[in-house]
Amino acid sequence: MADKGNAVIGQSGGPTAVINQSLVGVIEELKKQGKVDRILGARHGVRGIIQSDFITLNDVPTDLLERIALTPSSALGSTRDKPDEAYCQKIFESFKKHAVEYFFYIGGNDSADTARIISEMAVKSGYPLRVYHVPKTIDNDLRTTDHCPGYGSAGRFVALALMGDDLDNRSLKGVKIDVIMGRDAGWLTAASALARHDEGDGPHLIYVPEVDFSDDKFLADIDRVYSKLGRCVVAVSEGIRYKAGDRHSLVTEKVVSGGEVDAHGNKQLSGTGALGDFLSDLVKSKLGAPLQEKTGSKLRVRADTFGYLQRSFPTIVSPSDAHEARLCGRKAVEYALAAPEGLASGSVAMKRISETPYKIETFPTALANVARQTKSLDSAFVINGCDIGAGFVKYAKPLVGELFRPGKL
Amino acid sequence: MADKGNAVIGQSGGPTAVINQSLVGVIEELKKQGKVDRILGARHGVRGIIQSDFITLNDVPTDLLERIALTPSSALGSTRDKPDEAYCQKIFESFKKHAVEYFFYIGGNDSADTARIISEMAVKSGYPLRVYHVPKTIDNDLRTTDHCPGYGSAGRFVALALMGDDLDNRSLKGVKIDVIMGRDAGWLTAASALARHDEGDGPHLIYVPEVDFSDDKFLADIDRVYSKLGRCVVAVSEGIRYKAGDRHSLVTEKVVSGGEVDAHGNKQLSGTGALGDFLSDLVKSKLGAPLQEKTGSKLRVRADTFGYLQRSFPTIVSPSDAHEARLCGRKAVEYALAAPEGLASGSVAMKRISETPYKIETFPTALANVARQTKSLDSAFVINGCDIGAGFVKYAKPLVGELFRPGKL
Q1: Do A408 and B78 touch (CB under 8 A)?
Q2: B352 three-state secondary structure
Q3: Choice among B81, B110, B113, B139 that is catalytic
């Protein structure tokens, strides 16, 4: 069977609620096509490859695979390692040793870059390796594709969370600030706009990293909404940034001195409530007295940071997201096995071919089109620097799926 | 119709995911019995009563009522006002003015106390008022009743959140700390134990307010779990407290200087990430270096504070909780209208009459049995001061309902 070669699957970066759908998609398509011998799952991404920490996936029972597909987070384990030259050399040694000819890497733009480096090294060294990246990110910030598997379910969580939180803030009125994941792009924060059904529904203000943040405008916006409605729900991206001259700096940097930086040079934004608390204190200190004078009652200000729940909360997955994540896994195998037709290595992307009914098709694209770069939120979606418009809602609604519609008195 | 008298319904305190089930239960039973004239909803609890801010509920369409029943948070609005003598006098004036003879107040122990004060003033002044408290709290800390409507759904959120978070932390390993609501009682934090299915599943450590907190024990516990598993998920109540001599002090008090206090003298614990960040920094500073030396890799420590999502997130309600919240609303009407049989005023409580199948029945109890006091988590449920045992799981499982079972490789 050695003439068939083996396949390795890895998962990388921050998990999502549907990353295992892609994993199961790769496995089932590989089994269906029958052109590879062993299907090896690398534990914790590239780290598992260099440590030869593999699990054979050929014989995992179908019912367990289906349960895994419904389970959030990366079933194989993930990693934030960013392979350099020496690291990649070790990966090749492992691939050669294990007769690996197909590598499927499920991840974001950092992972696509890792896949690109490995595929280029393979080409250079004449090693017959086909590398396919399967897109995954709750941030929705990959280029080329219409959207990313993982985004719809995270967006669904955010929309439902904001819907519940707005109901909560109607009940006990105040200013409520919710901090949402998304280091460089505001896609996930923008999904909070889907929480709105009726006039007056929150979030009333939405701040994304694509718009320069200003404490003064933030305070003026809240003052305006609160003075009108007596309540205000605010969705804020963890990645909001100030601009001074030509330089952007994360608001979080002002708040957290020191702080952690990962192997990709990314500063830790999640897993801390610091930004929410800073914004909350800002509102209390600057608007507390004037709004109390204006309304006659004490200003109640609270902040929540949604944190890892956004990517890992079980049972509220978007149906289209689950379907597409699976599809992208299957298509990666189809494209890889089709070589020399098409691209020997690449990434799976999605194109929207119909709005009503919503319909997508996939296509292969070069790894370089996805690697490293990020796709910002379309600035046409942003209104007055503090809200998200109907264009975005039209774009995102089918990705997030039908949402609960609250009843109000 | 004036001989029939009118009824007022109010909702108070922190909302829950099923508090509107109780509201709809009261409305439907009042309509069914046909013994009151107008059914008035007080906007924002007692505040709506003194401001004569009522909405007539007799003619709200059934399909809207059913949608409201499924909607989290208090549809009538809530309040944290705690009526004193003068405030209660105003309530009576309003009740007299509006010919109110029945008052149904859906809330926690503070609300039960409000109900008690009002009912006692009514008795004293000879005003023919029947006051029934309908229990509601995510904290599950009311006396007399087996458990409280609202708790099961919040517990379901917490259990699912911890399940997802443990999967996340298996994928990218580290120490993860989750801060859970519950000012005085650890019931909600304990519900995190329901997230566990298999050996090695988190949360691995659970800290409740009923056990004195110690930084040193906390660190030793985490060190032990992390050294064994290479990962550690910790559930911590926002209400954990130190003991020095005879005095208890909230850990949060050490972290947040100043801080807000509400009308009930309660310190603000939710809506801030300060406690999680404090604990996270503590672990990083004390265990970072030794654990890095022991394991060879950098210790990753994150904290999330679940905040208001625990009580307001839509669509993941516990079925038994929804059913019982509705039932308690209906029974409050039944008990109130039965007078002079039984208690003219009181609170609805639940008794567990069978474990398999799980079954409860309701009974009326005096307001004084519920007012003000809190019911702590049974200390027999706590293991070694840092975990929750099988006794609790048996108690809480039917309240939270069947949970998703993750698939793992």
Answers
A1: no
A2: strand
A3: B139
Express each pLDDT in A157-202 by its tens digit: 999 999 999 999 999 999 999 999 998 899 999 999 999 999 999 9
All residues of chain B having their beta carbon less than 8 Å from the beta carbon of residue A12 are: none
pTM over 0.90: yes
Residues B207 and B293 in one domain: yes
The DSSP call for residue B144 is S
Q: Looking at the structure, do residues B292 and B356 belong to the same domain, yes or no?
A: no
Annotated active-site residue B59? The verdict is: no
Task: Find tokens 């309540």 and name the residue.
Answer: A231
Q: Is the ipTM of this complex over 0.90?
A: yes
Residue B98 token pair: 């509006």
| Signed CA dihedral, A360, A361, A364, A365: sign only | negative
CA distance B46 to B26: 17
Per-residue confidence at B179, pLDDT binned at 50, 70, 90? very high
| Whether residue A289 is found in the same domain as residue A178 | yes
Q: Which amino acid is at A221?
A: D
On whether both A10 and A43 belong to a single domain, the answer is: yes
* H or E element, residue A7: strand A6-11
Instruction: Evaluate the omega torsion of the peptide bond into residue A135 and state whether it is cis, within 30 degrees of 0.
Output: no
Q: Binning pLDDT at 50, 70 and 90, where does residue B356 land?
A: very high
Asked if residue B324 and residue B392 are part of one domain, the reply reads: no
DSSP A363-405: EEE-GGGTSS---PPPGGGEETTTEE-HHHHHHHHHHH-----
CB contact under 8 A, B302 and A302: no
Q: Which residues in A240-250 are b (16+ Cβ under 10 Å) and which e?
A: bbeeeeeeeeb
Q: Which residues of B touch A78 (CB under 8 A)?
A: 171-172
For A273, which of B176, B305, B406 is closest by C-beta distance? Answer: B305
Distance between CA atoms of B99 and A247, rounded to whole angstroms? 66
The C-alpha R_g of chain B, in whole angstroms, comes to: 23
SS3 B64: helix
Identify from B11, B168, B175 which residue to disrupt to test chain A contact, counting A C-beta atoms within 10 A and taking the largest count. B168
How many Å is the maximal CA-CA distance in chain A?
A: 80
* Beta carbons of A15 and A78 less than 8 angstroms apart: yes
- Quote the pLDDT of residue A1: 40
Nearest-Cα distance to chain A for B60, in Å, is 9
A274, B277: Cβ pair inside 8 Å? yes
Residue A131: inside a domain, yes or no? yes
Q: B284 to chain A nearest CA, in Å? A: 11
Domain carrying residue B115: 2-149+316-369
Coil, helix or strand at residue B236? strand
Cβ-Cβ contacts under 8 Å, A20 against chain B:
407
**Distance of alpha carbon B267 from alpha carbon B248, whole angstroms:** 14
C-beta separation of B108 from B121 below 8 A: no
Q: Kindly identify which residue of chain A lies nearest to residue B13, measuring between CA atoms.
A: A172
A227: in domain: yes
Distance from CA of B300 to the nearest CA of A (A): 9
Do A336 and A364 contact (CB within 8 A), yes or no? no
In a domain, A91, yes or no: yes
Encoded tokens for B45: 């609890």
Give the residue on B whose Cα is nearest the Cα of A270.
Answer: B302
Whether residue B302 and residue A270 make contact (CB cut-off 8 A), yes or no, is: yes
Smallest CA–CA distance, residue A361 to chain B, in Å, is 29
